[in-house]
Structure formats: C-alpha cells, structure tokens
Design a protein that fits this description.
Length: about 550
C-alpha cells in the first residue's frame, strides 16, 4: 500500500489558566494503545516490510516484461509519430502502463532509430566524394558539422532521446571510420609513391642525385626502404624501355641494388636491345612492303597503258631501277599469239583455283606472278589482275568442306558395298587399289574445271541451284569412274572366256573422241555447235 504524505498546518492556541488534572488519569484517557484502531495500525505496521517487498518484486517483474517489449513500444509509437525529439513524458503519456525507466529507454530507442536513418545519408555523401573520403581533416570537419546540425534539432528535456541518437550515430560512423582511414592511408601512400617516382624520373633524365631524393623522402614520407628501392628500380627500368636507352639503368646507385635486382637490370638491358632490333627489322620490313607495293603499282600501270595501246616512257621510272628495267622490257617484248596467251591465262585461272588451301590466299603473290609472267600478253595480264579477288573467292568456295562432303556421302556407301562383295575379284580390286582417292581426284579436277568454265562465261561463281547442279554432275562422273574401273579390272583378256552372267559387268563401249583445239585456226575450222576440248581439257561447244 502506497504511503500518503500529509501536510502539517500549524495554528495558534490559547494559553491554559486552569489547574491541570492528575497526569496519570490524563495519560490513561488518551493512551492510543487502548484504542482498537491503534491495534489494527500496529498490525499493519508489522506487515509493512512484507508489503514493501511485494511491491518491489512486482515493480521488477513489470520492468522486465516491459523491457522485452521496448522494440514493440518503439514501433507502435513511431506509427503515429510526426517527427522531432521524443521525451520520456511523451512516451509515458502514450503508454501510461510503462514504468519511468522503460519510458526513458523507449525514448532512447526512438532516438537511436532516427540517428541510424539520419547518419546514413551523411555516410553515403562521404563515400561518394573522394575529397572527403580520402582526406581525414576534411572528412572529420564535414562529419562534425553535420552532427551539430543533426543534434541541434533536439530541444531541451529530451535527454534520453538525445542519448540514444548520439550513441547510434557514433556507432554507425565507427563502422566506416576504420575503412576510411585505411583508404586514406593507401591513397596518401600512392600519392607519395607517384611523386617520388616523378622526381626519380626527372633526376635520371637530368643527372640528378638519386640518393639525395631518397634521403628526403625517407624523412618526410611514409614510404619504407623496400618501397623506395623498388620504386627507384621500377622507375628507371620503365624509363629505359620507353626512351629506348639502356644506359639509364647504369645511373642507379649500387646501394639500391642487391643480387637479384642486379640480374633483373642486366636482363632488362638485353630486352631493350632486343626490342630495338625488332623495331629496326619491323621498320625494314615495312619499308620493303611499301617498296614492293609501289613497284607492283608501277608495273600494273605500265601493263594497263600497253594494253590500251599507249607506249611506256622508261624515263618516268628512272628513280626506281626495277621499274625502269620493267619499262624497257615491256616496250621491247613481242606479243604472243592471241589464242596462246588466252590459253595460258586459262591455265593461270585453273592453277589459282586448283591451289591447295594450305598454300594460303596471298593476293599480292598471285598478282606478282601474273605481272612478271612472260607467257601472257598485257591485255590478259590486266584481265587476270582484275579477276584475282574473284578467283580467290572461287578457291574459298571450292575448298568448302560441304562440297567434298556431298560426294563422300554418296560414294562411301557404294565403295563399302563393293568391299564386302561376294565376288572375290571385285573385293580384291577395291581393297588393293585406292579407288576412293581416284574418284575424289576426278571429282575435284572436274569441279574446278566446271567452276572455271562457268566463271569465264558468266563473270561470277555459281551459287544455289547452279552450284548444286555442277556438284551433282561431277559426283555422278566420279561414281561412273569407279564403276568403269571395276569393269576394266574384271573384263576378260583376249584369250579368256567372258565370265558367267551376273558375276562381272561387261566392259563399257568406247566413247567417240572429241577434237582438241589449241589455236585459233583449229577453232575456226570447227562447224557451229560442234563440241571440242579446250587447251585446259574442258569440254566446250562452239557457239
């Protein structure tokens, strides 16, 4: 039971003039122990300590229970909170059941929550600004100003709220301060290293004293001996490579070097010399390439002029001995018969198309071969040079794996059936002779000839259905070749009887021979529509 404080009010009393009664009688009359109420009061007084203990334990349990709900109290309070500082009295007013200490801790928790939210914006601003993040002085001044602004908004009477806010703000800042200090130290070290390296570089180029610079930075920077030594060696090495001057490495005082770094310095000198030789070779190669290109262009220009009927003046090329000699030669060389030059041009086309893919596609090499060929007239040279890109394009098309796969897909099943033939003679022929290689050679040669013929007639390479028709026709020829070879190998000799029917095929009848045309006169002698074999072995029909 709570105690009540009773105010005492003093008042004046009159002085007594009558005789006093007997003291014992008066005392007996007013002795409170004789009153029943006094006896009850004495009983209650004896129970006082027990009641006070109960009240104390109840207050402790209540405080513990409410302490476990501080977060819930805070969240509930902040739902209706309009912002600003929160006092213990405001919490008590919102939650009358809370004891004073819990109300204070709720106010403190609200302050901590608001402090955590408020400081995060300040931390983000520091992280985004290198001038603040990497400069301790500027950073501390900035944060102190922001804290004053933040705490200055808290009015008087909100001590618990302020305390929670201050503690949380400092805790959040401490989490980042260590990383900021590490980054600042690293940045300052990098700046010092860069400045030191720049001074070393200037000293190397201007015969400065490296040891004096090192002594200055030893006393004024955070760079240790190992770091400075490494910077001296790295700076000198990089500068020697960039300036192509290995003698700069000899300017490093011996005190900066040990056994390993001395070996590295010698290795760097060798590498610089090697790089210098490489650059010289590259420059010479580039010069040769440019000279060859100029000579090639000059020769092509002369060929074009002669093909157009314009003579070449060798004096125009007096500064280039090779071009001058070519000009003299092209003016004095007689033209070949037209049909002979054209036949040779056809052979060149076929050779370019027939070249193995391992030979590579070197346009300049092909042009040089045509330019310097004595078997071609200038007009045919000019035409071939213009066709080179298309011819190389045709070679790529012919080397397409899909082209050869098409014949293999058709030829392999047929050859495998022959290899497992019940006819011992046929099986022996297939296994003993490389019929597959002969068929592929025939296919490849025929394909290239037909591609070349198509290009001569149309000025382009076959594509789509036109290309597939040529592939199918040459595949059929390869299959027929294998069949004919089998028939020839199994045909009876003049003194032998023909094999029984169904065992071996009959020999094929000879095909009529077509005339082979090698010059204009032979071509003109043919009637219109007649078929013939051109100098490259391609079957043609006279228009």
């Amino acid at each position: 039971m709570a105690r009540q404080e009773v105010q005492y009010e003093g008042r004046a009393e009159a002085l007594q003039t009558v005789a006093a009664p007997r003291i014992s009688a008066v005392q007996a009359r007013f002795d409170p122990r004789g009153d029943k109420g006094f006896a009850l009061a004495e009983a209650l007084g004896a129970a006082g300590p027990t009641i006070e203990k109960f009240e104390k334990e109840w207050e402790q349990r209540k405080t513990q229970e409410q302490a476990m709900k501080i977060d819930a109290y805070r969240e509930q309070f902040m739902k209706d909170w309009k912002g600003g500082a929160v006092s213990q009295a405001q919490v008590k007013e919102r939650f009358p059941e809370t004891v004073p200490i819990i109300a204070a801790r709720i106010a403190e928790s609200i302050g901590a929550q608001y402090g955590k939210q408020s400081i995060q914006g300040i931390i983000d601003e520091v992280n985004k600004n290198d001038e603040l993040r990497l400069d301790s002085g500027k950073r501390n001044a900035f944060i102190e100003q922001k804290k004053q602004e933040l705490f200055g908004q808290i009015g008087e009477g909100n001590d618990f709220y302020r305390n929670g806010m201050v503690k949380q703000v400092e805790a959040e800042l401490n989490q980042f301060e260590n990383s900021w200090q590490r980054e600042t130290a690293k940045y300052h070290n990098e700046v010092q290293a860069q400045t030191f390296s720049e001074e070393i570089s200037r000293a190397l180029q201007g015969n400065g004293n490296l040891e004096e610079i090192d002594a200055k930075y030893k006393s004024s920077s955070s760079l240790n001996n190992l770091e400075r030594n490494k910077l001296v060696i790295d700076t000198a090495t990089n500068l020697a490579f960039v300036s192509d001057d290995p003698s700069l490495l000899d300017k490093i005082p011996s005190r900066f070097l040990n056994t390993n770094t001395k070996l590295e310095i010698e290795k760097s000198k060798i590498q610089i010399q090697a790089a210098r030789m490489t650059r010289v070779r590259d420059a010479q190669t580039l010069e040769n390439i440019q000279r060859e290109r100029q000579l090639r262009e000059s020769k092509i220009g002369m060929i074009t002029s002669v093909a157009a009927g314009k003579p070449v003046n060798p004096a125009d090329f007096r500064n280039n001995p090779e071009a001058f000699e070519f000009a003299l030669k092209i003016n004095s060389t007689d033209l070949l018969p037209k049909h002979q030059s054209q036949a040779n041009a056809a052979k060149v086309r076929s050779a370019i198309l027939s070249a193995s893919s391992t030979r590579g596609l070197n346009e300049n090499a092909e042009i040089d071969a045509i330019v310097n060929s004595p078997l071609l007239n200038p007009s045919d040279k000019e035409a071939l040079i213009n066709e080179i890109p298309k011819l190389l394009e045709g070679r790529i098309a012919l080397d397409d794996p899909m082209v050869k796969n098409s014949i293999q897909f058709r030829l392999d099943p047929y050859l495998k059936s022959l290899e497992t033939s019940t006819n011992a003679v046929v099986a022996r022929i297939v296994s003993g002779e490389n019929l597959r290689a002969q068929a592929m050679q025939s296919f490849d040669m025929g394909l290239r000839q037909q591609f070349a013929a198509y290009f001569e007639s149309n000025g382009r390479w076959p594509t789509g259905l036109e290309k597939q028709k040529i592939i199918d026709a040459e595949t059929a020829k390869a299959e027929a070749l294998v069949q004919n070879l089998i028939k020839l190998r199994t045909a009876p000799g003049p003194n032998q009887q023909a094999p029984a029917a169904g065992q071996t095929p009959a020999a094929p009848q000879a095909q009529p021979q077509l005339p082979r045309v090698t010059n204009d006169a032979e071509f003109n002698a043919l009637p219109k529509g007649a078929e013939f074999i051109d100098p490259n072995g391609v079957r043609r029909r006279k228009p």
